[in-house]
Specification:
The structure is a single chain. With 312 residues, this protein is mostly helical. 74% of the residues lie in helices and 1% in strands. The protein contains 13 helices and two strands. The protein has helices spanning 11-35, 41-59, 69-92, 98-105, 108-120, 126-143, 149-152, 156-178, 184-208, 225-249, 255-261, 265-275, 283-311, and strands at residues 210-211, 214-215. A two-stranded antiparallel sheet has the order 1-2. The longest helix has 29 residues, at 283-311.
Length: 312
């Protein structure tokens, strides 16, 4: 088992670390665009999962003797939900717009409090429930979706993306409810192996399936020092490091709060996109960002108040 000294000793340090993850994941989407010049999306996901798993295997080599069935009973379903969410996202994005997906992905902030009550009978506070809906409203505004019927109509793309957001919520809730006493590095390593195996399998399947005569996703792999080194570094930082940090943060921060804070990465993505000139600042960005920030602060306050009540 991981030692207590290896985890965050205070909520403030956990929040700081989680905001680091939010920032990194905020710029990850922009980096993926560059990686897709060398690898197909499915192959990129598979390689990122593989290199992350290998890095964590090396880092946690001395802890491998601590592996027991508890890790697999928790990490496997959590990892499968995570991989399923990624696959549904990939398929759903072909039939909907990025804006609608960005909104529907954040259904996790509503799903997690419900699941936490179901898993561990932890009743969500009014502040956390309010923060979840404010977060979802912020995601809606940030996505720039209008309120006319054609914009919010649900087709197969929207249904798949909504399921993706729900499955992300399951992964967060399972980790928050049951992984508190597990080594984050070992736990995430199992998830990354699952991701690599399923992603490789899906890449092969999508390369051999056609829709209307066209291959769903042609497999593409570019050999070369630059793309290989780049994706290894990318995998270690955005996956191995960030997922381990997030898992450790869930030991100090309620899963419902984490589910509200993580969507703020979309605001980071938008801001960085504006800074580098690939997008323009809009009213939706400003208002959506304010709502997401307000939701994160409100959720954090709710978590702090609950902590004080428990300490009395």
């Amino acid at each position: 088992m991981i030692k207590e000294s290896d985890t965050f000793k205070s909520n403030s340090s956990a929040y700081t670390a989680l905001m680091f993850v939010v920032f990194i994941w905020g710029i990850t989407a922009l980096i993926y665009v560059h990686l897709y010049e060398f690898f197909s999306p499915g192959m990129c996901s598979a390689l990122v999962g593989l290199f992350s798993a290998l890095a964590l295997l090396f880092i946690s080599a001395k802890e491998l003797k601590s592996l027991n069935k508890a890790y697999f009973l928790i990490a496997i379903p959590s990892g499968l939900f995570q991989v399923a969410a990624n696959l549904l996202q990939k398929i759903g994005l072909q039939y909907t717009t990025p804006a609608r997906y960005a909104f529907l992905e954040n259904l996790s902030c509503i799903v997690v409090p419900v699941l936490m009550f179901f898993f561990v009978k932890k009743k969500p506070s009014f502040l956390k429930i309010s923060a979840g809906f404010i977060c979802l409203a912020g995601a809606f505004v940030l996505s720039g979706i209008s309120l006319d019927s054609s914009a919010i109509a649900f087709g197969k793309g929207e249904i798949l993306c909504a399921l993706s957001g729900i499955f992300y919520g399951f992964s967060i809730a399972i980790t928050g409810a049951f992984a508190g006493k597990l080594s984050a590095a070992l736990y995430v390593m199992i998830q990354m192996w699952i991701s690599a195996i399923v992603s490789f399998g899906s890449a092969i399947v999508f390369n051999n399936l056609t829709v209307n005569g066209a291959v769903i996703e042609p497999m593409r792999f570019t050999w070369g020092v630059y793309p290989i080194v780049f994706i290894i570094i990318f995998a270690i930082i955005t996956n191995a490091l960030c997922w381990t940090v997030r898992t450790n943060a869930l030991k100090k921060i309620d899963a419902s709060v984490v589910a509200v804070i993580l969507p703020f990465s979309a605001v980071i993505t938008a801001v960085v996109s504006v800074i580098i000139g690939t997008d323009k600042i809009t009213l939706n960005l400003v208002l959506g960002g304010i709502l997401c920030l307000a939701a994160a602060i409100l959720s954090g306050i709710g978590d702090s108040l609950e902590g004080k009540k428990r300490s009395k």
